[in-house]
Design a protein that fits this description.
Layout (H helix, E strand, L loop, with lengths): L2 E5 L24 H13 L4 E5 L9 H10 L4 E6 L7 H10 L3 E5 L5 H8 L4 H14 L5 E6 L7 H10 L4 E6 L16 H18 L2 E4 L22 E4 L4 E3 L28 H7 L9
Parallel strand pairs: 1-2, 1-8, 2-3, 3-4, 4-5, 5-6, 6-7
Antiparallel strand pairs: 8-9
């Protein structure tokens, strides 16, 4: 199903240590009227799914109205990808649901409460995060937890997921930290995939036993033999992204990979795998890749 992914703006109520958004970018946002036109255009093309992202979309006062507009124009599913802190205020969460949101992605940022607040650089937010998770779970909204794999997070992956499962979360997406824009210089954050892969496999084993979902978004299948069913890639589906700066297909973006090293030659997944991201190649090269025959 084709997805319209609307980046409402780059501003946010947090200041994460791995954020790619610069101070200058935070000043840029889509006007309400422009978003409404893009919704109309996508509806005319037959799109049925829409996502509102950022930055932080919940700081936009027009978000509820835009959600209602998307529903009126025939969108069957509306997702909001957020840090989730405003969901700690239950009436706000209930209002978004009443407007038409039926899918919630929440960025978890770090495992422990202390690590979370160090990462987002805002005191008092760990309690809000846990309250928000509770509100989502109590309402049966089945949130997707977005977990960022960095050198300081991936060693704790099993415990991180286990803690969230104990709170009622049942779906997880694993993202690899990006070295672009504001975060380009923080090369120490990015781990090698060969180091991450064993931890991801353990998390997938736990998910199989526990009956919940773990999906890996930036690790090619050749690193996860036997776990190919847990692999997804940004751009696997038709996704049109609208930002304050541009409109593009996700498969053509920096998140979608795009670099296939020599080791990809002859791989049985070569046509469905986007390869590695350029920022990863710049840091580690492509020597880890080995074709699956």
């Amino acid at each position: 199903m084709a997805l319209l992914d609307v980046v409402l703006g780059y501003d946010c109520n947090l200041g994460c240590t791995y954020c790619t958004i610069s101070d200058e970018m935070r000043l840029r946002a889509l006007p309400t009227e422009r978003v409404a036109r893009e919704i109309e255009r996508a509806a005319a093309r037959g799109f049925k799914d829409i996502a509102f992202t950022g930055g932080e979309p919940t700081i936009r006062s027009d978000l509820p109205a835009l959600i209602k507009h998307a529903r009126r124009r025939g969108f069957e599913h509306v997702k909001v990808a957020s840090n989730g802190l405003r969901y700690a205020h239950a009436p706000y969460l209930d209002h978004l649901v009443a407007c038409g949101v039926d899918r919630f992605n929440v960025s978890m940022h770090a495992f422990t409460d202390d690590a979370y607040e160090r990462t987002v650089r805002r005191e008092g937010t760990a309690t809000l995060r846990r309250q928000a998770i509770g509100n989502l779970v109590d309402r049966g909204l089945d949130p997707m937890a977005d977990l960022i794999l960095k050198n300081d997070t991936y060693p704790h992956l099993r415990g991180w997921i286990a803690d969230l499962v104990s709170l009622g979360v049942r779906r997880f997406s694993l993202w690899l930290v990006s070295l672009t824009d504001q975060n380009a210089g923080n090369v120490e954050q990015l781990p090698q995939i060969t180091d991450i892969a064993p931890f991801v496999k353990e998390a997938c084993d736990d998910a199989r036993k526990g009956g919940y979902e773990v999906l890996s978004l930036h690790i090619p299948r050749c690193f996860l033999p036997g776990y190919e069913d847990h692999v997804r890639h940004p751009g696997d589906d038709i996704v049109t992204v609208v930002t304050p700066d541009d409109v593009f297909d996700l498969k053509d973006s920096r998140l979608g990979g795009g670099v296939k090293p020599a080791g990809c030659a002859g791989c049985k997944f070569v046509n469905e795998c986007p390869g590695l991201r350029q920022d990863y190649i710049d840091r580690f090269g492509g020597g880890e890749v080995a074709a699956v025959r």
